[in-house]
Amino acid sequence: MGRGWMAGLYIAVAVHAWQTDRCRLPPHDDAVAVAPHNPPIPMEHATMDTAALIRAYYAAFNRADFEGMIALLGDDVVHDANQGSRHVGKDWFRGFLAHMDRCYSEQVVDLVVLTEAAGTRAAAEFVIEGEYKVTDEGLPPARGQRYRLPVGAFFEVHDGLIRRVTNYYNLQDWIAQVSA
To answer: Is 56 a residue whose pLDDT tops 90?
Structure first.
């Protein structure tokens, strides 16, 4: 790949930003200012607030502060578990956390949080380091096995609360690690 690909990418991003009214060019003597269709979004604040919310969620997780996690969720939170069903509500989520705490001891490390401009969606990539403490139904027997697993999570955020959490990881990789 030549060096020109980066300039092409920069131009494509700039054109997209201009087309979506996310970029404002200052008026110039030779330029015609185009009125935006929508008022500008205070992107820096929305994005930083959402990123801080997701980091606080995982900080509470690492402290095993499950009520702290619950406090960051909307009442109608949707949880899409990896290779599982969709569940709704704080009460269900609280029970899920209790079950996970009984079977696993886990810590999130190497956390990276990404947000979209309006702050209503976020993604997190991290590694989960854990110990399998008690056999979980339908899974291999627990014997205190340690594991390390890459995870991706996706969030919807509204009114400063997490409204959806979707987690993805490679279950077969985890099974191989705890079966070794």
So the answer is: yes
